[in-house]
Design brief:
single chain, globular, 9-stranded parallel beta sheet, alpha/beta, about 40% helix
């Protein structure tokens, strides 16, 4: 990874092989296939997937066999509806695993305040909003401070379609009220799908970015999903998200930010696709190559 600044590492999400929500997508793919192909493509690490063991004694040797590190792993938080004490108890096992695996951040996805029993199958227009952003931000700040003090992990808050922080204004409304322990997971694809330029987050919260997901979006597919008020899962099945270089997202501003700001951490190539339609190894290899070319091109421009 000589095209990346020192201290910046590139991982890949297992979602290209096995979907965490839509179990029919790659559900019969062995975890060894995911790990061997991630290593073959040239990645340095992976994030957790639903088929991964949740015990460090089993997970560490599994990753080490393939020369991979654990970048982080999604945690389904519910601070939009429950108190910090309950959230701490719910998060302990996950946080302990990440700490044992040498991770520095925990991906926090807010799954409370979502529509219905199957919110990712609900129409996009059915998304719920937060009632009191200031109180929510206080709970996030308290929880993040505990996470840092108890486990040495920085909270990386994942803005996400169909969740309470989807638009730029919603993200800013939360982060303008949180303390510095609350880091931001910048997801290029979710920003594009929510209708805003991820560069707004780079400008507004450069010091809060703790983790980066490199996701691309197929514009015409996303437009059709919005126009028909389809669901998030319908969008995934239709191919609204893809790997870098296969959609409308421009990754050059992100490459310049990473280089010029001195940012350090994990960037994760992620694409929620049907592996039967987008064979994972060619897809994630293409994504890595696009990021490599982007970093090299912006370095030449910068020079």
């Amino acid at each position: 990874m000589d095209f990346l600044p020192q201290g910046v590492r590139l991982a890949v999400s297992p979602l290209s092989w096995t979907n965490d929500v839509l179990h029919d997508l790659g559900g019969d793919t062995p975890i060894e296939t995911c790990l061997s192909e991630a290593a073959q493509a040239g990645y340095q690490g992976v994030e957790l997937g639903r088929l991964f063991p949740r015990d460090s004694a089993a997970l560490r040797p599994l990753l080490e066999r393939h020369g991979l590190a654990l970048a982080s792993g999604w945690y389904s938080g519910e601070l939009a509806e429950r108190d910090v004490a309950a959230e701490r108890e719910a998060a302990r096992d996950h946080a302990a695993l990440l700490k044992a695996m040498g991770c520095e951040v925990m991906v926090y996805g807010e799954v409370a305040r979502m529509a219905g029993d199957a919110p990712l199958d609900a129409p996009m227009s059915g998304r719920l909003r937060i009632d009191d952003a200031a109180a929510y931000a206080r709970r996030l700040t308290e929880f993040a401070a505990w996470l840092a003090g108890e486990y040495g992990l920085r909270l990386a808050y994942h803005h996400h379609l169909m969740m309470v922080a989807e638009t730029f204004d919603e993200i800013a409304g939360i982060f303008d009220r949180t303390g510095p322990d609350v880091g931001l997971l910048l997801d290029t694809g979710h920003a594009a799908a929510a209708g805003f330029d991820y560069g707004l987050l780079l400008d507004a919260f450069p010091d809060r970015i703790a983790h980066i997901h490199l996701k691309d979006m197929r514009g015409e597919v996303m437009a059709r999903i919005r126009d028909t008020d389809a669901s998030f899962n319908a969008g995934v099945l239709a191919g609204m998200f893809t790997v870098p270089g296969d959609g409308v997202v421009d990754f050059a501003p992100l490459a310049r930010f990473v280089r010029d700001s001195g940012w350090r951490g994990w960037m994760v190539v992620e694409a929620e696709q049907d592996p039967a339609l987008a064979p994972p190894l060619p897809a994630v290899t293409h994504g890595l190559e696009h990021i490599r070319r982007t970093f090299l091109a912006t370095a030449e421009t910068h020079a």
